Amino acid sequence: MLKTLFLFLIIFVSLLNADNKVEIFSSSINSKGDIVHANGGVTVVYKEYFLTADRSVYDRKTQNLELFGHVRLKHNKKYKILGKYAKLNLAKKERYFKPLYLLDDKSDVWISANEGKAKAEMLDITSGSVSGCDPMNPLWTMEFSSSDYNTDSKWLNLYNTRLYIYDIPVFYTPYFGYSLDTTRRTGLLKPSFGISSTEGFYYEQPIYIAEQNWWDLEINPQIRTSRGEGVYSTFRFVDSPVSHGEFRVGYFKEKKDYFLKNNLQNQSHYGFNFKYNNTNPLNQWFGLNLSGQSGVYADINHMNDVDYINLAANNNAIQQATATQVLSRINLFYNTNDDYIGTYFKYYEDLTLQTNDNTLQKLPTIQYHHYLDTFLQDHLLYSFDIQSNNIQRIINKKVIQTDVNLPITLQTSLFDEYLNISYQANMYLQHSKFSGHEQTQIPGFEYHDGFYARNYHTISVSTQLTKAYENFSHVMGVEVQYNRKGWSKKDGFYDDNLDYCSDFTNKADPNYAQRCEFFNISAIQNDTQIDFKQYFYDKSAHEILYHRLSQNISYENTKERYGDLENELDYKVTSFLSYYNNMFYNYKENKFSKIFNQISFNKYGLNIALSHLYKDTFLPRTLTYTPYTSYFTSSVKYRYNAHYSYNASYNYDIEKKERKSMSLGFIYTKRCWDFGISYTENNRPVLTTVGSANSSVYDRYIFLTIVLKPLMKENTGKSFLSYKLKNAAK
């Protein structure tokens, strides 16, 4: 009995108080005075620490615990430390390890060093190396002369750091600090480098500030040695549980030589972007208790030219096609089950123009809508909508246009709901009130206030049938809709322009754009619209095929009795192959006015998307108007295995005979790193003092992507290094 107790002895050693105790488990323990020797496999439990070793020595008096041979320490399931020798002072909370091997459980980052000393949460480490790769043959390591690690905040500082790819040194920095978890904290983000034959060496070093949990600030200074310097900054915030936003501002100053050589319109490029979203502003801001839904959405943008976007980062050619028109908007609304009230502000900036004084803006639009309501046991339906647009600009004419819509529908079903019929009376009114100065180039033309009112009638007959088969289901529906004009009344602007602007063949007239810029009345004809739809579903209710045919028949225009025949097809050939087609056939020209085709393939790690759009308006070509559109887009992605992925894209304007963009690249992915190379071409707009309003340059880039995991975030979209080639011909 005594021998058994000796072999499996458990000693509870009380320290300074009852809460601090160390438990030593061992097959053999000898005690002499204040010294306790444990041999034959030792396990020590102290608070959140769990240690194992071959043997140990514990001094009750000094409270020093020494461990020898195959020392392992696990702290609160957060990290592991391995070594040959460890010394812990439980009273002073000091720990010493030699040699030191630390593994963070969550990030799989390991540190190997000669020795490490720890007190409380701080661990000081002498010369060693760190990596996230397999420790037996690490692909990359960062060697350092000294380091310190905070086990609570999980922040690691490295000093005199050398980055090695295998055994090849590739980078040195006197200091490098990063976090082993995803906690937001102040520090430096991944830098970005670039080389250009025209812009010189590019360097961007993001600085991240996150001192409170409701906001953060990112500052992105950059330098282009042959072009200039600039800084962009983004402030993000969450000001309440129902709202958040961000504010971005940027400035870039061109060197004088680059500015003059490239005939740029502006030597300084600047702008700002503000986004904000609140899903319950009325109750939150005004202390109300409304049952309806309210919201505010803002997306406000301003810049002095398009290079504010082009210079935001060194890889915008990959990330996005630079827009030539920027929209700012603010939307506010309140919505209930019965009514909707909203106001919208829209402001446009054309970045290819030197001034937007003549650009039309909607400041604001005000709308009231009463949702569909019923009478007579759902046989009579009605809704009401009124919308007023304040369309203005700094110079020339502006207008306030108000639209009123009141549709009333009477509906029923016959033959046990096999046939649905409805009659709709549509009442519509638009009023235009003009102001501002008259600056038209059309002799004798003036804008006059006016209104236009009309009603028209719509009769619809429809049916839908469903048939289930053994392996699929078929749904087929037909709808015939007859429209007939009723009375109409017009004066002023509409009396002068309704007939002219409704005839789209007049678009070839140079005066059409100015004379009809405020005209937006959709034409109503005495006609019939026939729609045929069918669906096929498999046994799992997944759609296999969707097909639609639509034909308009006019009873007024005898020359073009039949409108374009539309055919739409969406066919899931297999689970991995699909085909989409949408085309319009014009009977008068005996040609297709629009053909859009898209093929998608996704299997065997291969993802292919090919599309082509062709449009023809059949209008004469002029110096300012092109009637044709022919555009080809393609993208291919191939995942060879868990490590290798390839991608390519090509976009071409066939009508203009102009390559819009292309890219080709690959990425190699492993547990501890990503490496990729890509070549990209992009047709980028610029604002110059010479040439056409649509001036652009054709950029060519080589991008190098290196992600050292988990030091760097994956899929951030930013390359590590870029090389800009000389601009190519478009």
Question: Would you write up a description of this structure?
Answer:
By secondary structure, this protein is mainly beta. Among the domains are: 1-81, no CATH class; 99-183, no CATH class; 370-524, no CATH class. Strand 27 and strand 28 form a beta hairpin. The termini are far apart.
Number of strands: 46
Poorly predicted regions are 1-18
Helix content: under 10%
CA-based shape? elongated
Percent strand equals over 45%
Structural class: mainly beta
**Helical element count?**
7
Rg value: 36 Å
Ends: how far apart? Answer: 93 Å
- Give the overall pLDDT as a whole number: 86
Topology:
Layout: H1 2-7, E1 10-14, E2 21-32, E3 35-46, E4 49-53, E5 55-59, E6 64-75, E7 79-89, E8 94-98, E9 100-104, E10 110-113, E11 116-119, E12 122-125, E13 128-131, E14 140-144, E15 146-150, E16 155-165, E17 168-179, E18 187-188, E19 192-196, E20 200-204, E21 207-212, E22 215-224, E23 228-240, E24 243-254, H2 256-261, E25 268-278, H3 281-286, E26 293-303, H4 307-310, H5 316-319, E27 325-335, E28 339-350, E29 361-375, E30 380-392, E31 398-414, E32 419-435, E33 450-468, E34 472-490, H6 493-502, H7 512-515, E35 527-538, E36 543-554, E37 565-572, E38 577-586, E39 591-603, E40 606-616, E41 628-639, E42 644-653, E43 658-669, E44 673-685, E45 696-708, E46 721-725
Parallel strand pairs: 19-46
Antiparallel strand pairs: 1-2, 2-3, 3-4, 3-5, 4-6, 5-6, 6-7, 7-8, 7-9, 8-11, 9-10, 10-13, 11-12, 12-15, 13-14, 14-16, 15-16, 16-17, 18-21, 19-20, 20-22, 21-22, 22-23, 23-24, 24-25, 25-26, 26-27, 27-28, 28-29, 29-30, 30-31, 31-32, 32-33, 33-34, 34-35, 35-36, 36-37, 37-38, 38-39, 39-40, ...
